[in-house]
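Comment thread on ticket #2218

A.B. wrote:
> Attaching the input chain for the structure job we discussed in standup.
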Amino acid sequence: MSMRTHYCGLVTEALIGQTVTLAGWTDVARNLGGVCFIDLRDHEGIVQVMVEPDNAEVFKVAEALGYEDVLQVEGVVRPRHAVNDKLKTGKVEVVATRIVVLNKAAPLPFHAHENANEEIRLKYRYLDLRRPEMQRMQRTRIKLVQALRRHLDARDFQDIETPILTKATPEGARDFLVPARMHPGEFYALPQSPQLFKQILMVAGFDRYYQIARCFRDEALRADRQLEFTQLDMEFAFVTERDIQDFVEGMIRSIFKEVVDVELDAQFPRMTWAEAMRRYGSDKPDLRIALELIDVAEQVKRSEFAAFTAAANDADGRVAALRIPGGASLSRKQIDDYAAHAAKFGAKGLAYAKLAENGEVTSPIAKFFSEENFAALLRHVGAQNGDIVFFGAGGYNKVSDFMGALRLKAGKDFNLVAAGWRPLWVTDFPMFEWDDEEKRYVAIHHPFTAPKVDDIADLRKHARTSVSRGYDMVLNGNEIGGGSIRIHNPKMQSAVFELLGIGAEEAEAKFGFLLDALKYGAPPHGGIAFGIDRIAALMAGTESIRDVIPFPKTTSAQCLMTGAPSPVPDVQLAEIHVQVRPQTAK
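C.D. wrote:
> Ran it. Output below, let me know if you need it in another format.
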């Protein structure tokens, strides 16, 4: 005999008069005036079970039930007297004729209906995942992955697995290393991405590849970062940027419609990295916020305010303004909070001008300008009575960063985030960024991204200002996908390695297999990777990707449920030829 005939959440009016057998957890059990009611829950939802007092044996069982007891219930479906419109099953109830307690639950560390802190939720993740809200978010992720697979399988993409145990290669974060027991003193690395393997698959002639790939990066965690994460990895042969962008844009539109019934723009706008940084102070601008940064270097370069004039007269400097409508309502303490927020992103100070409703201007920097010039500055930024204008000065990228962060904070604080979905492509990223500490260039995307110029001498000459063939897909201020056209010429790849401070010997040791592959007829190719965790979180309406990952790590890189990471016995370490050195003070 089957343990159940129907799911709790699927008991409908069509079953009225029928006998059903259900199985699930006791969500709530209550005795009201001699009648017991049980909210019985499974993964499909909740149905109300009623136990009448004249069924003494069943009633006795029902009276003793606790939260999360596991039950089998047999009973007859009938119309519910008090309809509950919040439930799919709210028009019916099941009158129990038999209840079997399959398993008693111990007293709970937290209840499904209370707002427990995340630490206890992660420690008892199996209880947390039972909650309907968590079930909904996990199912959103499952539907997302299913929709992606269907879309790509139907378009002749090859689903190919790449190795998890691979070679350590620099891709912007630390590798997780795995001791190779059979090769003492040597190590595998867990992949930060399948980047090199998917490029080699294009050299091997597979033309269109994809994989739902697990990736690993040993880096600091926050709400949108995990040590291990999942990405939709894709690569195409014989393509341009636009070929890839048009294809995946159609894919993203399709899955949003299928999974969450959202209609995204018919065509995503495109914006260069330079324009995004200039207007929004971010390479992943949230277009739902209409606020924009305004350059004011020309208006302040002859002022007596040294911080402004130094940045305004520096070729690599920037002076930018952010006008916040209605911002004159900010108190001095709130303005100080904005300055502290900007400081987290590198600001050394934050100037402001506040315009009262009567037009009176309050600003600690007004004294450095003539009255006429300061009025002209405020007119240039479009300031109106009741507004506040923040000013930032310094290096171009740093000012863009902290003013962009202020823009996002102001958008949320002043309810300026419009409803809906605003996707876009950010293109033409810089090829390199100069690292002052290491005194060398680092790759903005990764070392295998193609430059826009084909001439190696030209790239070397203009490395500081060179533009790559990289592109990101951004949605509501989140980078959900990033990719590029790759370098398919081995001489160009060697030149890029050289510019990144990777000498010929090091390049051969780390990437010799790629350089060899590029020599044997590598086609022009490119690709993109989408963050499954991030897209699922957006679809599910949560800020944290931890909510859509079944078993995530905390921000301190721990699994509270299993206790990982944990010490390993010396005998096990000896087998893999590893000795743990005592930790020394930094």
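A.B. wrote:
> Thanks. Noting for the ticket: The first helix runs from residue 56 to 63.
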